[in-house]
Specification:
The protein is 39% helix and 17% strand. It is α/β, with parallel strands linked by helices. The protein folds into two domains: 5-31 and 306-375 and 411-467, Aspartate Aminotransferase, domain 1 (Alpha-Beta Complex); 45-303, Type I PLP-dependent aspartate aminotransferase-like (Major domain) (Aspartate Aminotransferase, domain 2, 3-Layer(aba) Sandwich). The protein has a seven-stranded mixed sheet, sandwiched between helices.
Length: 480
């Protein structure tokens, strides 16, 4: 029997956390920052704690704990492969670093070494830095693929432009690297079509799934050669990043990192790299507990069904988009036609007359709504979408102060869904936005911008230490 989505929505750690607000009320937090990090899935955490009773290192079956650890670690890899529709015959999975960034650095270095004659990589203009900068550093020559539409209403990647770039660089393109969904606008790219074009030119497809895996099904059989995603974005904070790739390509690559566990033999003169996956790609003692936690989260989502997760999210997203579009002072970024440009539950917006930093601060301080602001590690994409309104601003002479003011305005506010998001969360967001729009001057007067460009309330504060002091919490734990 499939696991009920409605039964799972409330089973996350931190949903009932309350804070004192600037107006004296106490409120539970309305967590709409899942695109940065998702909350912990409680059943996965409970399972990982149970595993800790048996904790030992892996790669041994000689004592009970090691036997359990090895079995559980293998199971976690199997869950990751199954979650993205990859079969163990054709694909291999490796756990790396603390997110997808380590994976993309590995992929970029390895694929550049494998086909040095192909010195060009094509990257979309909507990438997070983790799927942009590693290719710039390691892959040689990088060209960025434009999006459909014009700013601020960019849509998905422009397939005609992609095909043109592939033709212009015929025989030189090693791979195409694109995100499954933007971490800024949530706009979803047409992966099957991108894969078809890339493969027609003997280029591989590298996909960043970090923003898609928690919102919709992902399938390697759509033509993906390599993908990576971050465990902390799929309800398993503290887990490793994941890389899945085609075995036939991986078998020709020298492992990027060397050390214990990835060799069959070592002498003073040489070492023999293991041909076993994932061992050869995971030098050193792995993040065993994090991997088990991630496996539990992925298995839970598979039992629910990612198609159901996606459908439920879309049912909330469409009305919210309409509500935001109906507010004259609110500007939502990216193509608003969801049939033409499908989206995940990630929305970037601004309010006319208020800096994005002030909006994010006030939504938190007065309404308990947790959102994120700035450029979301996607600076080129955000700044391209903001160009029309930045050009329209007249700050006078190009003084250092005015240029600094212009730079500060290069940002947005982002609200992002998780599986636990409810209509109550979205109503809190809309209520906060309405209150800000109704009293722009009043909210401006309540905040000042510090030398670090952070907006702080003039009379209300809640330091991190007052909310959670590690020393105090440890003392309580030790006393208990």
């Amino acid at each position: 029997m499939a696991l009920s989505l409605s039964a799972l929505k409330s089973r996350f750690i931190g949903l009932d956390t309350e804070y004192a607000l600037a107006d004296g009320r106490r409120s539970r937090r309305y967590y709409l920052d899942s695109a940065a990090s998702a909350l912990m899935l409680e059943p996965a955490w409970t399972m990982a704690q149970a595993f800790l009773r048996h904790y030992a290192n892996t790669h041994s079956h000689l004592h009970f704990g090691a036997r359990v650890a090895t079995h559980a670690y293998i199971w976690a890899h199997e869950r990751a492969l199954a979650f993205v529709g990859a079969n163990q015959t054709d694909h291999a999975c490796a756990f790396v670093g603390s997110g997808s960034t380590a994976g993309f650095n590995r992929i970029a270095r390895a694929l550049a070494r494998l086909r040095p004659e192909r010195d060009t990589v094509l990257i979309s203009g909507m990438e997070h830095h983790s799927n942009d900068l590693p290719h710039r550093k390691h892959a040689g020559r990088v060209e960025h693929i434009p999006m459909l539409g014009t700013p601020p209403a960019f849509g998905a990647l422009d397939l005609v432009a992609l095909e043109s770039l592939l033709e212009q660089n015929k025989g030189r393109v090693n791979y195409v690297a694109v995100t499954g969904a933007s971490n800024v606008t949530g706009i979803i790219n047409p992966i099957k079509e991108i894969a078809r074009l890339a493969h027609a030119h003997d280029a591989w497809l590298v996909m960043d799934c970090s923003q898609l895996v928690m919102h919709a099904p992902v399938r390697m059989d759509e033509g993906i050669d390599f993908l990576a995603f971050s465990g902390h974005k799929v309800y398993a904070p503290g887990s490793p990043g994941v890389v899945v790739g085609r075995r036939e390509i991986l078998a020709g690559l020298e492992p990027d990192e060397v050390g214990g566990g990835m060799v069959d033999d070592v002498s003073l003169e040489a070492y023999i790299v293991s041909d076993r996956f994932p061992d050869r790609e995971e030098a050193g003692t792995p993040n065993i507990v994090g991997a088990v936690l991630l496996g539990a989260a992925l298995e839970t989502l598979m039992q629910v069904g990612m198609d159901k997760v996606h459908a439920a999210e879309q049912a909330m997203l469409a009305p919210l988009m309409r509500e935001l579009a109906a507010r004259p002072l609110v500007r939502v970024y990216g193509d608003m036609d969801q049939k033409r440009s499908p989206r995940t539950g990630t929305i970037a917006f601004n309010i006319d007359g208020l800096d994005h930093g002030l909006v994010a601060a006030a939504l938190n301080d007065y309404f308990g709504v947790a959102v994120r602001n700035d450029c979301f590690c996607a600076h080129p994409y955000v700044r391209e979408m903001l160009k029309p309104e930045l050009w329209a601003i007249d700050l006078g002479a190009e003084t250092p102060e005015n240029l600094a003011e212009m730079e500060l305005r290069k940002g947005m506010v982002r609200a992002s869904f998780g599986l636990y998001t409810t209509q109550e969360d979205l109503d809190a967001l809309l209520g906060g936005i309405d209150a800000l729009c109704a009293d722009i001057d009043g909210f401006r007067a309540r905040y000042e911008r510090g030398s670090d460009d952070v907006h702080r309330h003039r009379h209300f504060s809640a330091s991190a230490e007052s909310l959670f002091d590690p020393r105090r919490e440890l003392a309580i734990a030790l006393a208990g």
